[in-house]
């Protein structure tokens, strides 16, 4: 055969190298346990009691009936079910500029490249070397070249092949572990994607709810101010005393104290949305949200419990960590066994370039190095035990993630059920408080009741309006939380896949 330099060799060394490599590969094996995916939990439903297939409804914002539908798939862009273009635009901006998501994408590339680099160790390493040198031999010595020249040049091209046969599968297990780590990074990226989109949706809903509460508080302040103006006129003509006026002034001040905390919360929500979109809080965005601009999705996915372990990215990431840990057991076992390194060199060394590729200037050598740990004070044994413990840790962490995930779904399903009941109660309470205030004002103007009766009606109405806005927001938030708890539909969009062996 000829090497990269065009030198032709006898076949003995090459046959020997091929025979040694073939024999080693035929007798190689892979140490350690093979990974098997955890079985899905054998449960039929998320909650102890069967869930109703639909919620109750009420005529108010976010009060429509919702239906839990078996086997209903989750769209990749589930937030579009709220039918808000400003919300869609904000999420699109966040997906483009959020630094956490960009960092997760970079972490995925790091993990994939590390796995590819490790996979290269399964193949021989070949290097080429060209070493031209100029020599001067001392005149007190005899010249070593045939021409008896004391100054001569020596040119040596050489190929070196180094190969570490994976006799016990240590390298293969290391590749397997790194590929599993790449899969972990993939699903961690999906988890960050899901968390980001869910946080934007929930922050938007919170902003809209706070705006409703601010409006309710401002209406309550306006009513209290109007009542005070009327009382001041009555006081000026002697119809009421100073105590009644002072009481109303205190009521107005009390209503006004509610407003600044709400305005603070609104500003903080705006800051949060700016940061989620990868901007500084001072970089204001144009969108402003109100609950009336959002549509509550009517059909909700119930989801089959056995499929949750496939859909939740955090569960899939935890599963990949088990895979990585199990492969590391094989690595630790292989490190306790003999290690073989095969090296081969072939080249030519000539004084004259014209004879560089002649058969007389060639050289080659083949070597095999076998290393077996003899005494390491138990270091390799303890590393194997540590790998086994790390595997057990990953298994229990996986179980913890699964349990928490099922709790998320169960909590959210119950929240959706009771949110509808709470909203109906809040809507009825608001209507009753509005009627009560109107009647109280009429009776007070007619002189049938005192001012304290009107004041109590005002406070009840203000609290009812705020409670209504909070309950409206809860329905939207828990609906978004259900999509998040069920995995967010990442499987319905194009995502990068972990590299394969």
Automatic annotation (TrEMBL):
Similarity comment: Belongs to the outer membrane factor (OMF) (TC 1.B.17) family.
Name of the gene: ttgC_2
GO molecular function, one term: efflux transmembrane transporter activity
GO cellular component term of the entry, any: cell outer membrane
Chief place where the protein resides: membrane
PANTHER family according to UniProt: BLR4455 PROTEIN, OUTER MEMBRANE CATION EFFLUX PROTEIN
Membrane topology summary: Lipid-anchor
Protein name (record): Outer membrane efflux protein
Record keywords: Lipoprotein, Membrane, Palmitate, Transmembrane, Transmembrane beta strand, Transmembrane helix
KW Ribonucleoprotein (keyword) present: no
Keyword Lipoprotein: yes
Entry's localization field: Cell outer membrane
Coiled coil (UniProt feature): none
Species, as recorded: Legionella feeleii
Segments passing through the bilayer: 12-33
